[in-house]
Specification:
With 235 residues, the protein is mainly beta. It contains 2 helices and 12 strands. It has 2 domains: 104 residues, Beta Barrel (Thrombin, subunit H); 109 residues, Trypsin-like serine proteases (Thrombin, subunit H, Beta Barrel), CATH 2.40.10.10. Strands 1-2-3-6-5-4 form a 6-stranded antiparallel beta barrel. A 6-stranded antiparallel barrel has the order 7-8-9-12-11-10. It is globular and about 45 Å long. This is Acrosin.
Length: 235
């Protein structure tokens, strides 16, 4: 991805992890709150250990606009279930507000009234593995265009066999080939509004079976069903 292409994406890091420390992605939804996935935090780490890198494209080559913050508060959805990945959504409050600019911007969270028919092209981005087997995460931010796939199709017997929840979105390609992977968790699925032209944060990268397999596209937590929850927690 080019510098500033996805100005709302953040890297959530554990400084003790080898390499960049990257654990999960997240999305800036205000100058002090990051929306991410609850499953990123199932392994216990002290709250103060979490580091957040904002405004970065290459994790090892920060630019002057890159800002580092630390976690002040972590809120996992009260109904998150790590066996079914239901309600896989979390909020992280940063210790200090970030300075917004060309490389650091907030994403727009849609309320439930936005219709999927209004949406054009969708994209995912992250520092996750580019190969399911390698497990190595790239330092340079990756991006991919994906298509929303009907939830009923995605939940059918040849696909995910009923494992999806009504608050999930499916995105990718029926034939596979392009997908999110390990390390992309918590990051953004954004779709362009064909009328207004800007992007909406439609989903949070949650899970999948393998990466880029046919009929097993990426599964995302839809943001719209949690709009009120987000407002309540951050208000």
């Amino acid at each position: 991805a080019v510098l500033g292409a996805w100005p709302w994406i953040v890297s959530i890091q554990d400084p003790w992890v080898v390499g960049s420390g990257h654990v999960c992605g997240g999305t800036l939804i205000s100058d002090q709150w990051v929306l991410t996935a609850a499953h990123c935090f199932t392994k216990y780490r002290p709250l103060t250990m979490w580091r957040v890198m904002v405004g970065a494209t290459h994790l090892a080559q920060p630019v002057p606009e890159t800002q580092v913050r630390w976690a002040r508060q972590l809120i996992l959805h009260e109904d998150y279930d790590n066996s079914t990945e239901a309600n896989d959504i979390a909020l992280m409050e940063l210790d200090q507000p970030v300075r917004c600019g060309y490389y650091v911007q907030q994403a727009c969270v849609p309320d439930p009234s936005l219709h999927l028919a209004q949406l054009g092209t969708c994209y995912v981005s992250g520092w996750g593995s580019t190969n399911a087997r390698s497990g190595n995460s790239p330092l340079l931010l990756q991006e991919a265009q994906v298509y929303l796939i009907d939830l009923n199709t995605c939940n059918s017997s040849q696909w995910y066999q009923g494992a999806l929840h009504s608050h999930n979105l499916c995105a990718g390609y029926p034939q596979g080939g392009i997908d999110t992977c390990q390390g992309d968790s918590g990051g953004p699925l954004v779709c362009r509004d064909t009328q207004a032209g800007h992007f909406w944060l439609m989903g949070i990268t949650s899970w999948g079976v393998g990466c880029a397999r046919a009929r097993q596209p990426g599964v995302y937590t839809a943001t719209q069903p949690f709009y009120e929850w987000i407002l309540r927690q951050t208000g």
